[in-house]
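Mods, move this if it's the wrong board.
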Amino acid sequence: MKENKHFYTAMYLRLSRDDKIAMDDNTVPDNSDSGENAGISGVFKAESNSISSQREMIRSFIREQPDMELYDSYVDDGFSGSNYDRPEFKRMMCDIEAGKVNCVIVKDLSRFGRDYIETGRYLEKVFPALGVRFLALTDHYDSFSADWGERTIVLPVKNFINDSYCRDISTKVKSQLAVKRKAGECLVPFAVYGYLKSSEEKNKLVVDAYAADIVRKIFRWKIEGVSVAAIAGRLNRLQILPPKEYKQSRGLNYNGGFQGGTGNGWSGVAVKRILTNETYLGHLLQGKTEKVNYKVKKNVEKPKDAWVRVENTHESIISGSDFQIVQNLLKCDGRVSPESGEINPFAGLLFCGDCGEQMVRRRVRYGGSGKVYYICSTKNRGDGCSRHSIEENVLKELVLTAVREYANRFLMQEKLLEQIKEQEVNFEAVIGANQEIARLKQEQEKFDCFRTGLYDDLHRGIITKEEFERFYKEFSQKAASLEQARKEQEKLIGDMLRTGSIYAAKLAVFKDSLELREIDRHTLTSMVERILVFEGKRIELRFSFCDQYRAMQECTAVLCEKATDGERSA
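Not the wrong board. Structure tokens:
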């Protein structure tokens, strides 16, 4: 190389996205990719690393060199130095391999890259093999004149420091993002369909009126019994833009995200993603994926228990009761009857009481007429169990009677609770007297005692250290789950006493069911979670809001007792 007196020079410039943020905001970003002036203010570092600053420094240097000629500038603006997957860097390497460039100049080594291994490979193997001279101006490195010590000691040390800095910044960024997620800040670049990013608070979601109305329709159709595929077809027939196209129509530069099918329209999978998204309840679920490491862009899925879930961070679009109804229905999607063109009211709700499999609908014809029966699907496949046969009309009458009775009992308890609440009562005393809370607290204390006793067992040699650690972990997890259940029960009763037992819309369904003449899909999905069919035409209904009903029973019993005691004292 030393005999080559003329160098066709590539000016390589790079500025990370975070450096630009520092310039725009006059602050030091946590994931700043600034270089050598780490102890100076964020504004100064950003300006010193700006593309114009790098370009001017390198131009001035080239003008002073009689043996250099600028071939081209290669600018990767907004790209991290942690990897070499950069468009302009790749273009520069193509020109080098084509023999058009035999010299590369950068402002400093960190502008070239921060990956210790890859940077070393380029500078120690690739460039020498291609006869390329490399200069880093502010690091005072020139491969043309560098001695053995600079190449083997100084250069690797500087590359290692740049790599370590990038790793340290990555760790700090992850920590800060974790704090923001736990604080309920929405960190995704684009809001989920149905919401917008607030113009006043960029990390807060606000309702998008148009898209939110579409989301409500999707949930309503599902509750009515429409399958997810049929919902997708309905949306496409109505020419409603799917989430990706809708965001782009609003001028958002949205090209990523979930692809729900081969075409541009709605798909069943895309509809199901909306129906299972807790964001519509007003909750944020973030941190579902994480990068392999700071050098690899690939994201990997995290287990669900590692997601960050923060409740009530924004306005809800769907009520909790409707969301739960839909989750139950999604387990067994319904289909439209080819005969009537309507949804079977029992679709997704009817199960065999013995084997737990779904009941299937069968029409038995007698001459010109026929009857509809439900039988166990296990028996229908010939895999065992028994028929559990029940005629559809009989089933409807039994279910209708059970629904009316449950609604009547529920409304009586709710009315009694409302009457007693008008009196002055000590809510905390009622919560303290709840039997379920007392049971959970007693169970929790039992496992706490078990956990404490393990120390004595270990000391006396009854259990080994490995057994101690295993039992201690199991008892701790059990005690924690009981404590969580107790807190949820306390919250349930507290909310019931202070704000009412159930949503007003659902109370209306309960009241309407008292006048019901024929069972319908909406009433069933609003009130019933599952219908079990046993032999002998015996059925068992598992109703929604059972926890609220039991809590109301106990609360009214406690309040009535306190009211009676008060009258006696008077």
